[in-house]
Design a protein that fits this description.
The chain has 726 residues and is of the alpha+beta class. The protein has four domains: 7-79, Phosphatidylinositol 3-kinase Catalytic Subunit, Chain A, domain 1 (Ubiquitin-like (UB roll)); 92-306, Leucine-rich Repeat Variant; 310-520, no CATH class; 540-683, Pleckstrin-homology domain (PH domain)/Phosphotyrosine-binding domain (PTB) (PH-domain like, Roll). Helix content is 53%, strand content 9%. The protein is built from 28 helices and eleven strands. It has a four-stranded mixed sheet. Strand 10 (640-645) and strand 11 form a beta hairpin. The longest helix has 28 residues, at 530-557. It is flat.
Length: 726
């Protein structure tokens, strides 16, 4: 007979004694189990003891997490969280430097456990650490010259413990004094500082800025972009990542009126070129966290355009109208007459003619064209930039199209407005950065006016594609669709520079796009004749079963998921995989992202598939209903799913990407006997069905398949023609 479900067999260690094998009854109170263990080793005062998981985490067993104990687990009897907190609280105040260092090291490790953290915080431990940072380090700085490594370690472990304790979200960030902020900022502002101390200090500043608007103002007064720049010029990618994260946090939390000012300072300090030369083009490969921070900086930089994008042009504003006059002057300079020559009516007629040549919809008052938002005034800004900085190309496009009389002229004004709107959609101008995205484009870090240059390349592409398509005004939307496809395909190749992007576009001519479309159409060819449709219906269940098996096999391999917290870089990972017999989900926490599969026996928790009631996705997931900026992110919502089991218990997931999201939601639905409805399943079905159809019809190439099956011939009058083998 299998053992009762509530009985768990474990080994329990105690320093200096042989481990004990015990059966733990999960129905018993935890205090009773600890008392029984203490009595086995003749230990009194059992309330001063607790059980820990005997692994690298050393997490305490509590009534809340005791169900995580599995058969074969190794536990350790140790002092209770309260007693440990009291001891460490005393030890870190020791007058002995070595004892203090050892105590802070132990505190940094113990603080990862929320049970211990709660006890230490209850003893006012956070205040003690901040006091040590504010004043205690002054005393050690005198010893720094002779004990520099020791001083660095002391401060490093103090700040590490502080970061770990704050990461649990028990204490509000608003409680910290200006003196503490000044001290942390001073470690960042120093030219020579211990790497570990600098990392922790940058991490603390980032958290302060992101978690409190009040602290943002205090931090912004203490550190400047100029003081952060030197940290980007080193070779330590972790320090560079933390530094860009602080800059992003300051950018994100800055009031709208200050963001343009901050952007101006970043340009003055040449932040873009420093990142380009020291990070993007360095010999060190860019890791995921750095890629994310560069993506965030890219998004925040483009979001500076939102104000212009959402500003309508005032047709009565003379300064704005002068920009349109400037566009006309640059394009038709040779033809322009002096403003004071001719009658007013004649000049108006000439302006109307020129505005028509420039491709505006409203020839009389082109300012009306810029009242649409988006793109608003941003389109006019782009046009003026193109006219001034790429004057030859601008004049050529305008004159080339204004001289055509065959209705194939490309309207520059209308095209520029629609193109600007399209580019804003592609680059998601105005949207907050995604928590999971790493999609930065190196080419946008190669120019101070990268969006305007991007527009200049794309408007020339649009004109070229228009000519290749021999389009007329009726084909405007078709041309824009082709141009969008050309831009998107070129961007997916992640060009390193704007010139490289331009050359990629040269290879994506309209003819090439047609070939690509034709190829894709052939791969997805859908025959409509009745025999083919009947064959498709017959094959479909086989293909669906194949997809189902693939999904279940992927669940058996497992996936590493990231636990999203308010502190992104302190990533905590967990792994989940399906047992080979498809009956149990095994899962458990990991110290770091694994290389390859994680074996079942290293995953402590399990959930029987039979207990699963439903799979919930998106905003209906419990962990997406929590408050907080990270939870409101659209892309995170699209990757979230939860498994409902037992009495309203949930196992919450956030997939690393859309592909894994589809695999897991499909696989879990398949386990529950439900339909697999993801986009990935539809795509796989189309691809596999198309391939299978083509294979089966290979021998029928160039043969006309009749709509109806051929008639069955009449039976012969006799069967004398049958050969008798006997």
């Amino acid at each position: 007979m299998p053992p009762p479900a509530d009985i768990v067999k474990v080994a329990i260690e105690w320093p200096g004694a042989f481990p004990k094998l015990m059966e733990i009854d999960q129905k018993k109170p935890l205090s009773a189990i600890i008392k029984e263990v203490c009595e086995g080793w003749s230990l009194g005062n059992n309330e001063n003891f607790a059980l820990q998981i005997a692994d690298a985490t050393n997490f305490y067993i509590t009534e809340k997490n005791r169900n995580d104990i599995k058969n074969g687990s190794i536990l350790r009897l140790t002092t209770s969280p309260y007693q440990t907190a009291v001891q460490l609280h005393e030890r870190i105040q020791s007058s002995s430097m070595d004892a203090k260092l050892e105590a802070l090291k132990d505190l940094a490790n113990a603080s990862r456990d929320i049970t211990f953290a709660q006890e230490f915080i209850n003893l006012d431990g956070i205040s003690l650490l901040t006091q040590m940072v504010e004043s205690g380090t002054e005393r050690y700085q005198k010893l720094q010259k002779i004990m520099k490594p020791c001083f660095g370690d002391l401060l490093s472990f103090t700040l590490t413990a502080f970061v770990e304790l704050m990461d649990h979200g028990i204490v509000s960030w608003d409680t910290f004094s200006v003196a503490f902020i000044k001290k942390i900022a001073s470690y960042v502002n120093k030219s020579a500082m211990d790497t570990a101390v600098l990392q922790r200090s940058l991490a603390i500043l980032e958290s302060m800025v992101l978690n409190s608007q009040d602290l943002y103002h205090k931090v912004a007064q203490e550190i400047t972009i100029g003081q952060l720049i030197p940290h980007l010029q080193g070779t330590d990618q972790d320090i560079q990542t933390y530094t860009i994260a602080v800059i992003n946090a300051l950018f994100l939390k800055a009031p709208e009126e200050k963001r343009q000012e901050m952007a101006h300072i970043l340009a003055q300090k040449q932040l873009r070129s420093i990142i380009l030369s020291n990070v993007i083009r360095s010999t060190t490969a860019i890791n995921d966290e750095m890629a994310h921070q560069l993506y965030v900086l890219q998004v925040l930089t483009f979001n500076l355009l939102e104000d212009r994008m959402m500003t309508k042009m005032d047709p009565q504003d003379q300064a704005q109208r002068d920009i349109i006059f400037e566009l006309r002057r640059i394009a038709f300079d040779a033809e322009c007459e002096p403003n004071n020559s001719g009658s007013i009516e004649k000049r108006k007629s000439m302006y109307t003619r020129d505005y028509k040549k420039l491709g505006f919809i409203n020839h009389v008052n082109p300012a009306v064209d810029f009242t649409q938002i988006p793109p608003g005034m941003l389109a006019l800004d782009n046009m003026l930039y193109f006219a001034r900085h790429h004057q030859d190309a601008y004049v050529r496009i305008v004159l080339e199209n204004s001289s055509r009389e065959d209705k194939h002229e490309c309207p520059f004004g209308r095209s520029s407005i629609e193109l600007t709107k399209m580019l804003c959609e592609i680059l998601k101008v105005g949207e907050l950065p995604s928590e999971n995205c790493h999609d930065f484009h190196p080419m946008f870090f190669t120019h101070d006016r990268s969006f305007a240059e991007f527009f200049c390349i794309c408007i020339q592409l649009l004109n070229k594609t228009w000519k290749e398509m021999r389009a007329t005004s009726e084909d405007f939307n078709k041309v824009m669709q082709v141009v969008r496809e050309q831009i998107m395909r070129a961007l997916t190749l992640k060009p390193n520079s704007l010139d490289q992007f331009k050359s990629r576009l040269q290879n994506l001519s309209y003819t090439e796009i047609l070939k690509i479309r034709q190829s894709e159409r052939m791969n997805q060819e859908d025959f409509q004749s009745r025999p083919i449709l009947e064959l498709r219906e017959k094959i479909q269940p086989e293909i669906m079963e194949l997809i189902k098996q693939q999904r279940l096999n992927r669940l058996c391999e497992g996936t590493c998921f990231r636990k999203i917290s308010s502190r992104r870089r302190q990533d905590k990972f967990w792994y989940c995989r399906l047992s080979p017999n498809h009956k149990v989900l095994h899962y458990g926490d990991l110290e770091e992202s694994p290389q390859g599969e994680v074996p079942h026996d290293s995953l402590q928790d399990k959930l029987p598939v039979a207990d699963i009631k439903a799979v919930i996705t998106g905003k209906d997931c419990p962990h997406m209903k929590e408050k907080g900026a990270l939870k409101q992110n659209k892309e995170v919502l699209e990757l979230a799913f939860s498994v409902l089991y037992e009495s309203d218990e949930y196992l919450n997931f956030i997939a690393p990407d859309k592909h894994e999201y589809c695999v897991w939601t499909d696989g879990l639905n398949a386990l529950l006997g439900k339909e697999m409805t993801s986009d990935y399943t539809k795509s796989d079905m189309d691809t596999l069905l198309s391939m299978e159809m083509k294979l089966r019809l290979l021998d029928l190439e160039n043969i006309q398949i009749p709509e109806a099956p051929p008639p069955i011939p009449k039976e012969p009058s006799n069967y004398d023609f049958v050969y008798d083998c006997n």
